[in-house]
């Protein structure tokens, strides 16, 4: 039998190259896109870490001079230098800090009373949301607590506890015709939307003076302003602006 040693023709080689290109080009695009997606996610994660770092420092009374203006823009390295911290991210970030003071300075030594022995209901604010237990008929919707019905005739007591590490804010509605005494931790803001509610602050061993701020921290990549992360929160800030 005679063997064919001619090999592949030019046409066959061109067809093979075309088929390889059909497969390789989409794979290449997928690989490049995957690498780009992972790099963007890593930057977004670091943007979030930078925002959280700034918030924690402000809560501890560091860099609070940036709260003097409604809007402050600065470099992350500038913020770190001002508080004597180290930028461990290996690159800089653009930061925009928007802040609104929502309370004047308060001290635990003012208008606080001892904790009652019993309550008609207890509202707990945690990182996972708001929960309620007790005899008062209550509905919880997001951060709004609605008192539907109070069965006692007088001296009804509702306790609101803060189990988070931040200064949360909740709304309170009393739809009943009975007044309600609300005993709340010092480090929680209660907005009374409707009804007869008497707010009473519970005793605290913390004698520092604080201001309460709503803040919004936006961290943006220096070389790509399309990549940014934003953190909105309410914080209790030591009243020692520096």
Q: What would you say this structure looks like, in words?
A:
The chain contains two helices and 14 strands; from the N terminus they run αβαβββββββββββββ. By secondary structure, the protein is α/β, with parallel strands linked by helices. It folds into two domains: 102 residues; 91 residues, no CATH class. The strands form three sheets. A six-stranded mixed beta sheet has the order 3-12-10-8-4-5, with no helix packed on it. Strand 13 and strand 14 form a beta hairpin. About 4% of the residues have low confidence.
Spatial strand sequence of the major β-sheet: 3-12-10-8-4-5
User: What's the multimeric state?
Assistant: single chain
The span between the termini is: 96 Å
Largest sheet: 6 strands, mixed
User: What percent of residues adopt helix (DSSP H or I)?
Assistant: 10-25%
Helix-strand sequence:
HEHEEEEEEEEEEEEE
- Total beta strand runs: 14
Overall 3D form = elongated
The overall average pLDDT, rounded, is: 79
Q: What's the tally of helices? A: 2
Structural class: alpha/beta
Q: Provide the number of structural domains.
A: 2
- What's the alpha carbon Rg, rounded to whole Å? 29 Å
Low-confidence stretches: 105-113
Which secondary structure elements does this structure contain, and how are they paired or packed?
Blueprint (H helix, E strand, L loop, with lengths): L9 H50 L11 E5 H8 L9 E15 L4 E2 L7 E6 L2 E6 L2 E5 L2 E6 L7 E6 L6 E6 L5 E5 L4 E6 L2 E6 L6 E13 L2 E15 L4
Parallel strand pairs: 3-12, 4-8, 7-9, 8-10, 9-11, 10-12
Antiparallel strand pairs: 1-2, 2-13, 4-5, 6-7, 13-14
């Amino acid at each position: 039998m005679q063997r064919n040693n001619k090999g592949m023709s030019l046409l066959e080689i061109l067809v093979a190259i075309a088929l390889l290109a059909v497969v390789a080009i989409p794979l290449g695009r997928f690989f490049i896109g995957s690498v780009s997606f992972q790099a963007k996610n890593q930057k977004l994660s670091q943007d979030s870490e930078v925002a959280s770092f700034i918030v924690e420092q402000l809560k501890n009374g560091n860099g609070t001079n940036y709260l003097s203006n409604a809007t402050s823009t600065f470099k992350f390295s500038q913020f770190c230098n001002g508080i004597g911290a180290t930028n461990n991210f290996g690159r800089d970030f653009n930061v925009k800090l928007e802040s609104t003071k929502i309370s004047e300075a308060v001290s635990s030594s003012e208008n606080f009373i001892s904790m009652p022995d019993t309550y008609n209901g207890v509202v707990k604010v945690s990182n996972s949301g708001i929960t309620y237990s007790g005899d008062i008929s209550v509905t919880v919707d997001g951060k709004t607590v609605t008192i539907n019905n109070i069965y006692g005739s007088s001296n009804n007591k509702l306790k609101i506890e803060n189990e988070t590490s931040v200064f949360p804010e909740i709304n309170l509605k009393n739809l009943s015709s009975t007044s309600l005494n609300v005993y709340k931790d010092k480090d929680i803001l209660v907005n009374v939307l409707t009804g007869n509610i008497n707010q009473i602050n519970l005793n605290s061993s913390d004698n520092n003076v604080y201001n309460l701020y709503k803040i919004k921290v936006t961290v943006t990549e220096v070389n790509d302003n399309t990549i940014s992360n934003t953190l909105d929160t309410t914080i209790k800030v030591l009243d020692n602006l520096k």
